Structures are given as C-alpha cells and as structure tokens.
Protein 1
Amino acid sequence: TCALPILSTDEVLQKFTKTPTANDKCSYCHKLQKENHWAYRAKANAFVSHAFTYKFLDAVAALEDHFKDERDEAVVWWDLFSINQHIDNDWSIDWLKTTFKSAIQDIGKVVMVMSPWNRPVTFERAWCVFEVYCAIDTDEDFQIALCQKDRDQFMKDFQKQGETAINSMLAEVRAEKSKCRDDTERVKLHDAIQENGMTFDRLNGLLFSRYRDWVVQAVSEVLSQTMDRLGEDHCDTLLVMESLAVIHSQQGDYAKADSLLEACFKTSTAVLGEDHPNTLGIMNNLASNYNRQ
C-alpha cells in the first residue's frame, strides 16, 4: 500500500486488479458484483478516458475533484476495473463503430483525465482520441478532468503567458498522430474514425472547440480567484479578464467579449490612465472584437 502513490495506472492494473481476479478470470467490477459489494453499480454514467502511464492516484484525484459536486451520483466506467483483463479482446473495426460507440452513447458522458495540461498524454493515445470521437459523433457530453497539480500549473502558465499558453497547447493536438502500443490497433482505430466521413482535420477542429469550452471555464475560475485575492482593480485581475475576453472573441462570442473588454477599459482608464500601454492594449482588443462581428 505504501507504494501506491508512485504507481502508474498500468502498475495498479497488474498488481491490484489482475491478482485478486485471477482465480475467477473476471473483471474487477464483476468480482464486486458477485460479492454484493457496496461500491458496485450496475449502470455507469461517466466513461473515463485516460492513459495507463498516468500515476494512478493523480488520475483518481482528478476524477474526485471533477465529481466533487456529484459524488453520490457519479458512477464511472474505468477500463482497468470494468474490462476482464484475463482474456484477449479480439475486436474489429465494425465492433468499434457499433458496439463500442453504442456503449459510450449509452453511458452518456466521456471524462478525459488530462495531464500534463499543456501536452496531455491522452491526446497522443489513439484509444483516447477514438473515445472522444465517439462522444462527439454521438453528441454526448465530453468533459476534461485535471488533478490539482495540473490545475495549479495551468493557472501559473496562463497568468504568465495568457492565451499564448493555450494556443501553444492546441498546436500540440493532432489526432492523426495518436499512437498505440500495437500499431495494428492504431490503424484500426484511425480507420474506424474515418470510415463515416470524419476527417482528422475536422476532428481536430472539434477537439479544439471542446477544449476551448473547458478553457473558458478554467480561466473564469482563475479570474474569480484573482479577484478574490487581489481585488477587481488590480492589474493582474484586468489581465486575466482581458485574456478571457480574447478567448470569447476567438470563439465568436462577441457579446461576452465586449462586456468584459468594456469593463476592463473603464477600470484600466480609471486606475492606470488612458495613455497607459495596458489601457491601449485593451482598446486595441476592443477594436479587433468589433471588426470580427
């Protein structure tokens, strides 16, 4: 037990999932079901997308934080517990497009554990990309979960670099470059994505859109925390507010961008003066937002 904090999810699978289920040759969930264990639930409402290289407890912490307001309702489908790890799963492209996709649609939500925030391993893993594709293609909910360590790093990077940090991260997202341990699996997964007319360019665009939705939520939290810590008139607060406005503008939500930028401009003019570089920068972003409309 003392080694658990440093174990990867794959190591937990080998030591704590496979061993107690070896005699019954079943999934860990099936074992809990047979024992009438209180932790077993028949119906999951969140599919966990993750990487086996993650530290297990980091992934758990990310999920706990993500579901903190719905602990009693959240029931996760997590492959290291839900799949029978003692049999070889021989699957086809047709199985991916039908059975697997239908299962995600039935669950209704995919939650991706993302780490590190600026170059998430999950976007490099073909299975994770396919799982997100299934959520998008079936119009189900796609959410992002970060552990506190990655959330803190995101806040530091964003406060230092603004939207540049986000754009740099998005430049790393290329679904067509995702890989598997077994290249045959990668080919099947990529083929399954493209068979119904989906292109990787379009999928990347959809991933960007979903990721930016999360960014708006995360930056809004940074803004709220900065306001609480420094006050509404502080320069750092204005910088975060301006960055959030630029993100809204880039997403086409010009009304929200206008509201935030006008508030920034008014406060910056009062606090710093109308000729201050920060005030002039806000004015420039206001003009750019107007031109985009």
Protein 2
Amino acid sequence: GDRLINYSLAHQLAWKHVIMSGEFAMASPRSIAIIESVAFPFSQKLDFSGLLRYYETGYFSPRAQALGEGSQTKNEVGVFIGNQFQLTKYQRLSSYVDYFYFPKRNFSHAFDGAWGMETLSRFQWDRKQKGQYFLQLKWSNQSVSLLQRQNQIQSSFDVHRDLTKKLNWHSRLMLNYLHSYKQNELGCMWLNDLKYTRQHWKMQMRIAWIQTPSYDTRLYAYEPTLPYSFSLPAYYDPSMRNIVLVAYKPNRHWEVGIKIARTQYFNKETIGSGLDMISGAHKTDLAAQVVYHN
C-alpha cells in the first residue's frame, strides 16, 4: 500500500537505585518491536546494565535508531549485558557482551537462523596532567554459512597528551584480525594527530598509515573535519592519508574553515570506476566553509 502507520508506547521507572526503561512499537501490518533495559549499581565502584531486544522481520520504521547488530531495526533478537568497574580514582574497566540472532535471511546472511556474539573490554586511565590512555579488545563470532563461523578480533591502543597548553598530541594503533574457512587476514592502522590552538586560530593535522589486505579488515576512526559536520570513514587498502584543517574565528559572528585531505595508495594505478575513475594512485579532497552566527 501507500500508507505506513507506527504506534509506540515508552516507559521509564526508577526504583531505589534501579532504572528500568523500554518501548513497545507496532507497525502495519501487525509487526512489533520491543526493547527493555535495566541499569543498577552493585556497589559504589561497580555497576551493571542489561538490554533485551525483539524486532520482528516485518517491522519497519524509517526513524528507528534502536540498538542492534543489523543496520535496520528488524529481523533480530538479542541480549546485551554490560558493566563498568572503577579500579581507582583515575582507572576504570568497562566490558560488555552481546548475543544476537537473525530469524530470517538478510543482506549479510543468505540463510535463516544466523547468530553470533560480540564482546568488548576497555581499560581507561585518565590523568589531566599526564594524559588520557585506553587499551581496548573486541572479539566477535558469527555465522558465515549454515556450518561455518567467522572470528574477528580488533584491538586499539590510544594516547592523548597535552604537549603544551596550546598543543595537543593524539596517537592510536589499531589491529583487525579476521579468520574464517576462506579468509585469514590481519589489517592495521597507525594514526597521529596534532592540534594547535591560539587565540582565534585552530589548526589540526593527521598522518595515518593503513595496511589492510581487503575491505573486510577495514578500520574506523573519527576524522578531523569542519565544524557542524561529521566524518567516520573506513580506512582500508595499503595507503597513507594526510589531513590539514585550519579554522579561524575572528569574532562571535564569523567562522571560516578549510580542510585538505590526500590519500596515497601504494598498490593502485587507478581509483574508482566508470565516470568517477581517477587515473593515478592518489586522491585529494578539498572542503571549505564559511559560517555566520546571528
């Protein structure tokens, strides 16, 4: 038909130190989605959270942004359990485990009944004068066929330091290992950022070195970009990406910014295909922005 009707009922309940919330939604014709969560502290240093989700295959809502392994809020059943433990005043350990099941085939799985799990642990140490550090390990296991499984292990080590009052340095090393019956790949990326602020000026620079055998071992990292915009690209293929970003704000009304990014591929002679094909092994992006605040 030409009509889609959505109904939903949300609730939130606080009892002592326990917070429970959830939502029940229905979309025509008679398909439902349910999400229920609970969060509570076990002690002053330890807290837990849990979430149960059930999205029927036929459910559709164009604005749904619920937690899930799939890209859409449909065809999924899952359980999420997380906790955070404050080791010391400056150190904490966060972890979660997520189990998911897809009753029907979808874009990623060409068969019914695919399932998997994902677990992550992150140790973080924050000292304002000595910097911020974290070490993260993530493991996922899921179906790639009726009988075959795929394992993926991702790790990250991140450092933030203020070199001076005006100069900040950020470095991250990321690894992505993928193993299945037809793949055995290791991808890595090492990026370094410098950020300098002085009066009305802000300057940022990034140098990223990427080494991945294929798109399947791609790595994601937030990228410096212009104000009021967002960039979380996938880094893949043997390459190097350099970014320079300059922003100038002379007063409270005007704001000007320019971004230049260049990607140099080590094993390509052309980039893209068809009308978008670039003859050469490098690609340069240029963006500029002028903002006026009333």
Protein 3
Amino acid sequence: TLQCLFGFTSLALLFLTGPVTAATFSVTEQSCVASPGGYQWAIEQANNSPGHDIISIDIPEFQMNNCDIYGSDDLPIAITESVDIVGNGNTANGYVRYIDRNGNINPDGCPATASDGPSATFTWASRGGSLIDVGVRGADSSGIEVSISGLNMKDLTRVGHIRRNAKLTIEDASIDNIQSVSLNCNTAIIRAEEGADLTIRNTEFYKLTLPAEPFFSPSSPIIPINGIIEGYDAGELTMDRVTVIDSIGAEAALVIWSGGAVKIVSSRFFLSSGFIFDDNSVDFVNSMFHNFLP
C-alpha cells in the first residue's frame, strides 16, 4: 500500500508541474488604453498569466501616444513576464508631432526644453510614446525575455528600456523616424541596464534623432557620451543583418556599449555615427560604414 501511495503521489506531482501552455492575447484596438483589445491591456494580461505568452498584433496600426506613463522616465507599463510580441507586419505608431511658431512640423531642436510657458517656441500636437519597458523596475529581472518580431515601429520617442539582467530581441522589424524628444532629448532610443542583453536581427532603422546638445565626459572632453543605442555594464549586444540609415545626434554615437561581448555581423550603417565600446570584446564581421545614403 505504501508503494502504491508513493506512486500516485509521484504521478500527481508530475501532473501539477507539467509545462504551462502559452496564452495568446490579441491587440485589436487602435487606442493603447482600450480594454479589452488595447496594447496596454494585452501587456497586463500577459503579466498576470504564467508562462511565456504571446501578444499578437491583429490590427494594421495601433497608437502609442495615449498609453499610461509610469514613473518619471516616460515609459509605458512594464512587461514583467516573458512574452513574444508578434507584429504580423503591422505598425506601432507614436504620432510624435510638435510645431514651431512658423508652423513647421517637427523642426530641428529640442521641444522638451523650449515648449512650456508663455515664451514657448514649440507647441505639442502629440508627445509620442515609447513601445516597451522590459523587466521589473529597480529589481533583478533575470529570466524575463521579450521578443518583438514582424513589427513596424514609427514616430515614437523611444523604442524602450531593458531592465537589469532582462533580455530583448528585435527581429524582422522596421524602426522608422524615432525622435528622442521627451525629457531632455538625450535619452537613448534603446537603453540596456546592467547585465541586460539586446539582440537585433534582420531589422532596418531609418532616421534616429537625438537632438540634445552633447554631454562630454570631464575626463575625455572630446568624447561624447550620448548614445542612440546604449548599455552601461550591460550584457551582450548582437546586431545581425541590421541596416541603419541616417542616425542624427548632436555629436552622439550610434551605439555606446560597455560590459558584455559585442557581435556585429553582416550589417550596414549609412550616414550614421560610430560606436564607442568599453571593457568588452568586439567582433565586427562582414559589416561596413558608408558616409552617404544608399
């Protein structure tokens, strides 16, 4: 009898600890805050669902400029469970728009530092939005892995932020006209915290703008430390079959990365700033810079 009881106990444990089936949450509404069906709603559902889930974008375009903002860093709701965001060729649009006194839309300069009060030189039509915040704020986010595939991202203020030890993969995507014009216009378009990994595959970036004045390191006054993509004491950076066209910054580097290994493979960079690497190994394979547009 004792052997029989142990046998049933083992079977029960195997049943209870079996694999959790991934849930799929569909984005079907244009408004970020729509419930159900909005992008923010889908993240909330995935956060509350055990296992590695899927967010499927099933609408041609959804907007990021009316998402709720959490904290002071102008980011949307955090993703705190592993999830795959499947774009299905659809678009996340931030609709960032600001207008100067002459009626010019999105002119050069930093609207965030010149748009408040009676002496404002810019008027906001839409403050845009950021797509993603991966991991738990202020905590070790080991084990949280997010992928974005087949999604077009345009007119955002940032793509997003990767928290400590989390992982973000972007593949088969396009990232178009991203303007870091929130806060002080010097926030990286993609930023990785300590130990965070970033992988970008088969993705094209077009026109990345970081309009803030450069901030120079006191110890190295000719080296700017603004980065369009940056990670400090970060994990691994992989850029595989990546094309960057026309990245614009006030002496900002396209990539600043320190910590983990960097691998750049079969990638091309047109009219884009260079890289600054510190305290890491770098493989730059079958890749090149061009000082002209393709």
Protein 4
Amino acid sequence: NYLYNNSYDENNKGPGVYFSENHNNRIQGNNASSNSDDGFFIEKSTNNLILDNQANENREIGIRLAWLNNNTIMNNSAYHNIMGIALFNTSGNTIEKNRADNNSKGLSLEDGSNNIIIENILFKNGAAMVLLDSMKNRIENNSANNNNNSVGVGVALQNSSHNIILNNNIRQNRIGLFLNRSIDNSIGENSYDRNKVGIALNLSANNTIVNKTFMNNEYNMIINENETISAYPLWESIVLEEYPKNFLQPFDPYAKGSTPFYEIPPIHPVSSTDSSPLLHGSSSKRFPVYIDSDP
C-alpha cells in the first residue's frame, strides 16, 4: 500500500493518521499537523517505509511508533509537539535523517532494542534525545544542539545499557550527555561544545568513554554516586549551582601532566599511552583519576 501526499490536519477526535497491524506500506509526503492527539500513530506493524512526512503542532506526539519491527523512518519533520518522534517497544528499526525542533522531547526511545538512530537533527528541544529502558541501540552522527531550556539535555539515557553512542555533535545544551543509572554503554568520539556540562554520569558504572572533543564547556565531565543528591532532577540545584566542589570533581581529559583528581565514582584509565583516554567505570573499587600525560 502507498499513502502519499495527503493532509490530515485539525482532527479533534484523535490522531491524524492511524495504522495498526499493517505491513509493507510506504507512507510518504503526508502532513499530519494541528491534531488534538498525535500526528501519526503507527503500531504493531513491520517493514514499512515512513518517509518525508510532516507532523507539526500536534497536542501529543508528532510521530508515535509502537510495537514496530524492521521499519525505516527517514526524512520526517516534527516541530512544536509534546514529543517529536517517539518509539515504544520497538526493535530493528532505522531512524535516519529526521528533524525534530521545539518539542519537549525531540526523539524518544522507550523499551527499544537493536535500533539504529543516525544523522538526525534535534534542535531547541527540552531534551533532544532520550533513551529509557533501552539496550543495544546505535546512536551515531546525530546533532543535538541548542537544547538549553530548563531541562536542556542533548542526549539522555535512563536505565539503559549496552548502547553505542558515536560521532554525535552535542552543542550548546545545559547538559550534553546525561547517563542516569545506565551501565555498560560505549561512548566514543563525540564532540561536546559550549555546554554547561559536557558529560554527566549519575549512578552509572562500567561505561566505556573515548573523548574526542571537549570545547568551551563550563564542566567537561561531572560524576556522582551519591544517592541523596541523585533525587534532584538533573541535580539542578546541587550540581550546577550550589555544591559542585563538595560532591563532584570536574574532569578534564586533556589536562597536561598526571595530576590525580579524586572523584566520587570510581573511574580510571585503562591505557596510559592512548592520547585519547579510554575510561572504564568499576562498581567494586575506588581509584583516583589520573590524567593521561600524553598531549
């Protein structure tokens, strides 16, 4: 089936477009905006191509995808919704080259696994990208920029593990990359520029971090294992304003020399020769952090 170049606007009774248990469709060039619910709601479907659609100014979610496997979501735009593009209980999908601006959440993945999220542009959202209870996803070559309101997070992981976060441009957010209770993720070769905090780790261990570029952040990295201050949303009043020196240690991976910094979570270099330090967390021991002495 082919759903092409239609307008589904201002529906006061539900989503603009609703598909359920419908497979092998091409949904292209449609506009589902200003609806009282979602723009697009597609569920329990496989092998669909969702391409070049617009979902703007809906009361709920621009594009909602639930219980979907092996679909391609590409070149869609979602502006001024509660959430731009949101996936629930999905696996094996490709989310590529979409744009989500001025939403509370730009792109959200909940209970998702083995999805590829690549080359999306997420601009001026409350949180650009959020992974919740998700594992084994690949997040690569996305731009999460200017998400700098009261939430202001570029990429956030909550209770998520074994994800790969690689080659993303994370710029001008309050917190660039935020991991909360998330373990065993691989974070490599991302750029963190002009964020208040480049990377924040909260109760998150055994993550592998390869730092590519930290530029002009107020803090390059902050880390916490204190349950008491973890209760504060994004540590807004504790970490960023009142007590950073008491509980948290700013971490500069490119500081020269081998001056030790003692921090609350146990993070230490694996290699002393790699010019781009590779760090691992450890849940059982506490180590000082030694900065790689290589330039």
